Amino acid sequence: MGRQKGDAARSKARPSSSSLAASLLPSGGASVGFGGYVGTTRLDTTSVSNPQAAVPIVDVDSEVAQYLKRLARKDPTTKLKALSSLSRLMQKKSPEEVSPIIPQWAFEYKKLLLDYNREVRRATHDTMANLVTVVGRSLAPHLKSLMGPWWLSQFDPVNDVSQAAKHSLQAAFPAQEKRLDALVLCTTEVFMYLDDILKLTPETMFDKEVAYDEVEEIHHQVISSALLSLATLLDVLLSPEAKHSSKAREKTISCAQKLLVNHKCFFGFLKSENAATRSSTYTVLSSYIKNIPQVFDEENIRMLSGKILGAFQEKDPACHSSVWDAILQLSQKFPDSWTNTNQKNILNQLCNFLRNGCFGSQQVSYPVLVLFIDVLPPKAIQGEKFFINFFQNLWAGRSLSNSSNAFVALFSSIRGCYLWLIRNASRFCDDGADAINHFLYTIFEKIILKLVWHDYLNFVSPNYQERVISRDSEELSIFVKDKFDKINMEGLDRSHPMGYQEEWGKCMVEILSGLYSFKVDLLMAFCATFEESCISIFKQTASKSPGSLERVIQFLLLVDKHAVRKGESWPLIHLVGPMLAKSLPLIKSLDSPNTVHIVEVVVSIFGSREIVQNLLSTDGHIHQSIASSKGLDLDQFLQFFEENFVGWCLQESNYSTSARLDLLLALLDNECLTQQWDIIIRHAASVSHVESASQTKVSEPVAVLALLLERTNQGIRKRKLGVDLNNQQGLNPNYWHHELLDAAALRVARSYPPFASSDTRFLCSVLGGSVEEDQTIFVARDTSVMIYNELLRKLLSFMGDSIFISVRDVGRFLIFEECFSELDSESSENVLAMAQFSLDVLEGSFYGLGNFMEEGELIPSILAAILVIDCESSLAAVFGDEQNDELKQKLNTRLSLCQNVHAFRCRIEKQFFRSLGIKNKNRLISILVQFIMGTLSKEVMLEIDQIALLCCVWILEVLENFSQDQADEQDILEFFLNEGNIWSLQIEPVKLQVSFFTFKATNLSKDELNNLKFVALVDQLITKMGFDRVFSGKSSPPKTQHPRAWLAAQILCTWKWPGGSVLSSFLPWLTSYAEQENYSSGGHLLDSIINILLDGSLSQGGCYESSAFNVLADSCEEFESIKEPHLKALVLLFSTLFEKNIWGAEKAAFYFKTLVNRLSIGGSVNLHCLKILPPIIGIIISPLCVLCDESRVGVRSDSFDGIEIHGTFEVWLQKTLSLTSSTSWQTDMDVWLQLVISCYPLKNMDGTRALKPVRDISFVEKDLLVELFRKLRQMVSVSPATKKLPMVQMSLSKLIVVVAGYCWNELKEDEWEFLLYQCRLWIESSVVMMEEMSEDVNDAITNLSTSNNSVVTLEKLEQAVSRVNLSSLKYARNALVAFSIFCRLVKLHKTGDLDGAVILKYDKWDLIMHRMIEGILRLFFSTGVAEAIAHSYSYEASSIIASARFDHSHFWELVASHVVDSSPHSRDRAVKSVEMWGLSKGPISSLYAILFSSKPVPCLQFAAYVMLSSETVSHLAFIKKESSPSGDDGTTDIHNKTNLESSSEDSDLLREEICFMLIKSPDDVLDSDLMEEKRVNVFLAWSLFLSYLLSLPSSSPSRERLVQHIQNYAHPAILDCLFHHIPLESCMPRSLKKKELSAALSSIGPAAASAITRGSAMFCVESLWPLGPETMAKLACTVFGLMLCILPAYVRVWFGNIRNRSTINAVESFTRVWCSPPLITNELSQINKANYSDENFSVVVNKSANEVVATYKKDETGMDLVIRLPESYPLKLVIVNCTRSLGISEAKQRKWEMSMMSFVQNQNGALAEAIRIWKSNFDKEFEGVEECPICYSVVHTSDHNLPRLACKTCKHKFHSACLYKWFSTSHKSTCPLCQSPF
After folding, report:
1. Cis status of the peptide bond prior to 860, with omega within 30 of 0
2. How far apart are CA 615 and CA 241, in angstroms?
3. Cβ–Cβ < 8 Å for 846, 913
4. How far apart are CA 617 and CA 611, in angstroms?
5. Torsions phi, psi of 1877, nearest 5?
6. pLDDT tens-digit readout, 169-179
7. Contacts of 993 (CB under 8 A, 6+ apart)
8. How far does CA 1758 lie from the centroid of its chain?
9. Dist CA 1032 CA 1045 (whole Å)
10. pTM, two decimal places
């Protein structure tokens, strides 16, 4: 846009060009018109006529002149910019520089004020303000020309514009007096300007073409503003307060009169269609009438009267304010003007105006009505008739009011007008007082009584629902509470706003108050009518809706609010008193709560004493002295109260009982409250026989008494809240106590079933506490305690009848001794009823318990009973179905009460429990602990995991309810996690029977079972709360044991429990806690745990086993083989802490020193310590070596001082050698041998393929190790029996590994032969064992009979798995380790990376290695075949086989590593051997079973993937065979690749395993979790299949058919699954200018490019495990890249179906960045390498432009096709254009272009292949082969066949695929051309 206009740096004396300078000069003279301008002149006429003011145009700054010129532009944006630039320029210049532009500015200013754009007008005034601020007094010569438009602009209809105009005027004249002086000075000019403005028409406003609608709108605005400015001008200049001279007033009047004459009294503007113009006209006429009425002659007045008084027809509310002003001014100034008009029409118009709700101007018109009737000439109306019509129409107009303010104005107007009429009735009645009274009574009767009061009394909303005013609900208690503050607005019509009825009633009350002051006889008439209405309503209330009665009540409340409270006496004396005295007998005779309620309201308003006195004074039989006395005697009041109200109100229960009790309470007086209450209670007691000793219950009197107490309680609460400020005496609870109430309450509490609902209500009412604010107790404290004890007794009897032992035990613990006999004598039905009764009472008086916190054990006992019964409902929910029917039936009968207790407990807030005192809280918690721990130990009918979870939930609830901070939480946890709760501290191994289906504890002692439950409970607590909260405990000194260390040790020793184990849950929590905490907390806990476990291991003697540790330093596989729980836990904890680097070398040295010191006791060996040393030394040796290395460079540690590792190990070696000198194998020898072996562990350096020694050993150690190996070899060679011993086999296998790893260079050839022979022997033994297991599985599945159920079959499979000798697998594992070391050494020797080892160069080792590899492959296939066979039966069966591998994961890792490194020849032989085996499944199925295992082992999965990808297997892995002699796989000719071509059905083309993953699974996978195994398997299957497709030649039929099969049958949902893992939100560039990629995308995106470049997914699959979001994302990218490479058309179809725009952009962006560049490079490279071998065809590649130019020439014809690859290829189609053609028609040229597009679009292979097929299509066409009439191509775009199917009629040939598609889509079998049957 360039820089801001006006900011140029050039000088004003230097115009930019000669043309611009010329444009700044004026052209021609000025032609003056309206407003000081007409035509094109830029100068003000005043300035031109005044030589002193005239300024030569050449003195105007050129830049300023340019901006002034731009102000004449039509575009508002240009004007705004010019005004803004002018403002800034003026602020920078001096007054002398700005003054010359004022004439030109004045001209533009007048035009700009009439601009249509409001922003232009506002900016004009802002510029004007800046100008006048700068020029100051220099404005004076030009003021007269500016003042007219300036004054007009003050009344712009847009507020912002008018405010800006006022601001500019104030800037010129800051003082108000100065502004008035300026206006007086320019009076004539202003009137002249306004005269010109008012003469304007839309046609004469502008000299340029402007839109007519804009012209019309601005014309209305200008006229309206001019009229308003004229009216205001008159008010200002002719105001009596104005101090200017009389000459100025005369000039103003003269100009105003001239203007009135010129515009014919402005009557023409009253006809305007614009409401603002009409309103302004009424305003200016009102101003003329008010200020200069003398300017109107009689004719004008006559016309003026008709126009103004006829304005009641004006329907636009915007005009009504000015209309009323004009009417009032006219009526005041010209009273006779009404005689000059048709009065009847005017009054009819007025009535119509009122009847229509003033046409919407209620808030304006209603307040004026009083002023209107006050100025209304009496002669103009007929008094009575007019006012009746007036009020009737005014009342009728209320239906059109729709706002609260409108109704307020209406009722205020009615009240004001009527009271005005009462005071001024004599104006309209000249016939004396009788006439006036008759006039007033008539108006009162017809308007007030029959209209306003009648409608009020009968007003019922359409939404009103008939209902009885019942005091049983809280509705009316709230009503009474708020009666002095607000009106109950229920039932109002939604069309009426809130407060409508209140304003209505208020209007009535204020009218009545006015009548009491001015016209009492009218008030008495209303009172008589009110009395009659009330009696009539009372009689009809029983059969009709109480709506009218509610209106009466609301009216009485309004009387109270607006009259009684103001001290007026008429409401009681004249209105309510007589009505109540006459209607009270009727009310008593009616059984209606509504009529009783009205008496209560009256009493509440006036007071009981006043009402009674009024009733006595109106009773003719009462002594006159009472009526004449000033007050009422107290005894007389009480006597009247008892005789007339108490008996009636306490009658037996019926319809109006509640209302009568409310009335009775309302009659209570502060002075005699105690006496009245005594009267009431004694009367109620006499009725209910409370005074007698009888135990017989009378329910109805108790119900009345209960209801009375409830109402009393509500009243007391209201007094406490301050609602009833006049009755505060009842706040003292002692006033309400009575011995008869105590007796009645105890009798009900001690009663027996059946119970009535009134009994519950009565006890709840006397105890109080229904809500938190209710603390009123109507009985003595001792009585309350006895009642609560009775309630507790009933609950405890219910607990004693429970089927759960723990509940009964707690009940016995809580019961009092005197209740034992009674508990045993009650039936179950009575117990249940009593417990329900107690629960109901406690629920209704729960908050009253807070008053008895100090009453011993009462409160905690009650709460404990409630909580325990609540827990029983949870126990019932998990109660087993296998229990007997009697127990279940009993439980069901108790369940409803338990559920009720649960609902009650849920309503108790936590704050209530926390508010208990320390003593009560501790007792309650101790009871709950006793119950929960008792449940855990005694409830044997529930499963362990269920009971543990249930107890955990209860503990969490206790913590939530009672703990306020962490200290409270730990205190409460200490109750539960106390060491005394462990039933057996001498922990025995828990015998757990673990099966595939369930987890059961069998043959367990009671203590062992309780320990198992306790650990399961702690496990659940950790899960819910977190490890740190459970184990933080109370702080303890560092030197002492951690308070919860015993608990951790207990869990570690338990090892497994239902729902969890150490490895799966507790150990990860412990290590995470140790990693996060500092040493003072986490380290203290770990040290304490280790010490406990170490002491336990030493005390138990280690329970030594030779297989208790592995030769690998980081292997945790042997933990399960350690039987002694302390040692198992100790080894596991050591291994974890050092493996995760939580502990380092110093800790290792410390414990090494500790163990070495404990090994020797007084010179003898501690055998217990010796037995536990091997597994521990094997773990701590690695970190110990780190410290040893540091010590060599001078870094010493206190933990390491005094320890010589090499020397210690040498001593141990020598000790072992000394024991091996004997020929027999001894236990001590094996123990020392295991210790020595543990000192030389190996470590995985690169997976399982490279095993290296953990530490460097001395030559002395090597010699000793070799000598030990030789002695052991000699021992087993001499004694075959010794060799067969399992411990000898295990020790020998481990020693072989150590020697191979540490002393390989010291071994001789025969020793290597012995080593390999032993390894092969152990491997072969495991092979035989695994193959036997596979055969057993095969037999179990294939020999199934119909009678065999699944359980039997699965048991057979478990038996087959269990027959595998675990020791043999361990020998084989060690053999595999040794063989791995040997293979690595041989490999290093062949590559020259290994010095020495001459023995390893012998070729004879190759044969041995091949045979051992074959054995390993047999192991691999045997486990796969077993799982494949089991999977053919069921998923559970395959899981049994797969799960067995987890127990020997290291063994299978070693097997997998050798399978991956195996040679193609070995793999081929292994495949053939499995085929010849003759099982129901073959080698391919076994590989797929491992790859897609139900319990996958990652290393085996990768090995299976490698095998399936190998050339010797891949050709069998995907295509289904027609027949297979050995099940589903196998062929004797592995090079036979004709399977695909021989397949008969494309839909059944693929093998079942791969077909399931590619075709059937993606729909299910789409909704699966991102890391679910099913999804991983599908991705692996796709990567495997796509890699195989890429390995096939691009033109091979096999590849084409497989690609077509995928195209037809594979669902594209797989692509959606892929992009679940690829972060689409990161795929889009963050900036359009700078494309930045997220870190996540940068780490996974290259996988797609690598897959395209390599043509394989092997690199990605190899790094897939451990499985994680990033590795899965890389695999998804790899599969997507391969799909783009081999299935571009398939991906394109999916991409075209995406509907989300952002997804489309993200996928395209990802493809363009990571996939398209290598794909385009690959495509162009293949096209370059392609050999089309044809002189007529050539291809040229332009890599820089990503283009391919194909040139085809034949004879005299030819064409060039340019194929351009887009940036996002292949998502976007290539672009094909014909750039040159010769001898080819346009139609054929277009057809050939489309054919190339079709070939490329449908080609799933390389682009070079598409070009080759396209060329072949041309060749066939030139050879005369006819094209297919359907696809217009010779060669089919998909299957590349020629048209062969010919129509018998028209002889045209079609492609079979095209014809099939035609038949299927058209649903016809006719020829597409001739329509003959085909």
Report:
1. no
2. 64
3. no
4. 10
5. -60, 130
6. 998 898 888 88
7. 1000, 1001, 1002
8. 67
9. 10
10. 0.63
